[in-house]
Q: What sequence folds into this?
């Protein structure tokens, strides 16, 4: 069943013993980060800081910081369940024939739930309206000593395409410059930046609304790599199995989640000069460099009567954002397999921080098949940022990093099996000579065939006979090893 709002999720975490309430006063400048970082490295609970220095609002952090809580946030036993739902839903054979149409009615009914509902009245997010907004009242964190200031790290930034009228929701950090302006961290390749460029052609002010603290399915949807024609609110409805309720912002025509904790409304003046934003301690484990970005002007803040401020920190893995990335990996695997049926499984290791490494297993059918997959993946959306793609055979699990390393270390010939590809890179990449552009590497760790130029006999893996395996399994307790 869908969570009504963030506070319903918090209550559920509390009931399950997965939330720690901290009543001691804490400082949002560095202290909360240090506490949350230690907890995340121990795979510890979500944290609710009930008394935060300089602000009347409690702070929630690390809410989705384990596989268990990430699955709970999306109302599933395990993240693969969502991928299975998508795979079954898009299987057209489910809709062929009269009987199958009847059997598919529950799925079609679920599809009807994805469409958001626009309420004619104000929402809970608008119980309090502040027309003289002051961002300093919010418990916004300064995460790391070298950060340029305080950053809103879990914002759902909602804009509207001036041509199509379609709304977009993305997660872009907001550096607080003063009580009513922030940076707007729209990377070059992001949808928000594309909409900004459209407004630049028209001139004037671009309306923006930012939601803080929604049902976690809505929050996750802002990070999902969806096709442009898929509304993030619709995807959230699919995940929640219930439509998202929306209300119109107070000062613009953008619709926002009715049950959000806070809504920050304002605009970006497309004629205004860009402002230096950053540095910022990022999920790469390094400080991302300062650069120039648009300025977000805040003209109104609305919120519930007793809101909770949600936040997260990013840094060396494992951290909360890693599990959001893992949700993307498992949810979108079926869609990837639709386009490339030879793919068995894939894995974005936490240490690769989203874009730096992907391991993919394939059912190899022809010479050079692994190289075909590398180039195909580099041509797909945000996969273009992937700095390293490792391809293994179908009998190797990409989740088994030890076995993958064994295959990479032992199966490759550097000249034959290493592919260097030139192309776009993530804006956060610090290792390339140029920003946004550089070189990516593919490693073909599959077993090589004679048709791929390997004329020597490929050795067999060392394996014990099945009868001895069975014998040891039956007699294991007799050995007294446990």
A:
């Amino acid at each position: 069943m869908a969570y009504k709002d963030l506070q319903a999720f918090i209550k559920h975490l509390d009931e399950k013993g997965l939330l720690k309430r901290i009543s001691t006063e804490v400082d949002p400048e560095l202290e909360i980060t240090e506490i949350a970082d230690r907890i995340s490295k121990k795979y510890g609970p979500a944290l609710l800081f009930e008394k935060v220095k300089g602000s009347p609002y409690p702070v929630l952090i690390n809410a989705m910081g384990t596989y268990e809580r990430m699955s709970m946030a999306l109302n599933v036993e395990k993240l693969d369940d969502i991928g299975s739902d998508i795979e079954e839903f898009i299987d057209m054979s489910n809709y062929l024939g009269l009987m199958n149409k009847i059997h598919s009615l529950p799925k079609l009914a679920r599809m009807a739930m994805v469409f958001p509902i626009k309420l004619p009245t104000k929402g809970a997010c608008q119980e309090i309206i502040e027309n003289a907004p002051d961002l300093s009242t919010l418990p916004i964190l300064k995460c790391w000593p070298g950060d340029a200031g305080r950053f809103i790290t879990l914002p759902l930034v909602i804009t509207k395409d001036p041509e199509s009228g379609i709304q977009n929701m993305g997660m872009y950090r907001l550096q607080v410059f003063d009580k009513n302006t922030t940076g707007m961290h729209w990377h070059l390749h992001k949808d928000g930046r594309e909409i900004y460029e459209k407004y630049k052609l028209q001139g004037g002010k671009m309306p923006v609304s930012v939601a803080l603290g929604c049902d976690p399915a809505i929050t996750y949807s802002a990070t999902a790599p969806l096709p442009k024609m898929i509304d993030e609110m619709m995807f959230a409805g699919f995940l929640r199995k219930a439509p998202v309720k929306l209300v119109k912002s107070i000062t613009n025509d953008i619709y926002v989640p009715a049950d959000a904790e806070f809504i920050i409304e304002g605009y970006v003046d497309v004629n205004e000069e860009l402002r230096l934003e950053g540095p910022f301690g990022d999920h790469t484990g390094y400080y991302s460099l300062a650069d120039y970005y648009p300025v977000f002007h805040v003209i109104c803040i609305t919120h519930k009567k007793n809101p909770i401020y949600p936040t997260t920190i990013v840094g060396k893995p494992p951290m909360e954002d890693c599990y959001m990335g893992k949700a993307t990996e498992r949810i979108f695997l079926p869609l990837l397999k639709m386009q490339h049926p030879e793919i068995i499984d894939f894995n974005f290791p936490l240490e690769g921080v989203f874009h730096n490494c992907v391991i993919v297993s394939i059912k190899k059918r022809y010479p050079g098949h692994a190289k075909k997959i590398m180039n195909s993946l580099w041509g797909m959306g945000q996969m273009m940022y992937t700095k390293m793609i490792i391809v293994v055979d179908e009998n190797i699990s990409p989740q088994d990093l030890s076995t993958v390393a064994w295959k990479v270390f032992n199966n490759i010939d550097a000249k034959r099996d290493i592919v260097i590809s030139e192309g776009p890179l993530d804006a956060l990449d610090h290792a390339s000579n140029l920003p946004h552009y550089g070189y990516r590497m593919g490693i073909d760790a599959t077993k090589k065939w004679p048709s791929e130029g390997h004329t020597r006999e490929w050795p067999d893996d060392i394996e014990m006979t099945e009868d001895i395996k069975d014998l040891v399994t039956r007699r294991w307790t007799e050995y007294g090893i446990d």
Observations:
- The chain has two domains: 80-310, 340-452.
- The chain has 14 helices and 25 strands.
- Residues 433 and 439 are 9 Å apart (CA to CA).
- The two ends are 42 Å apart (CA to CA).
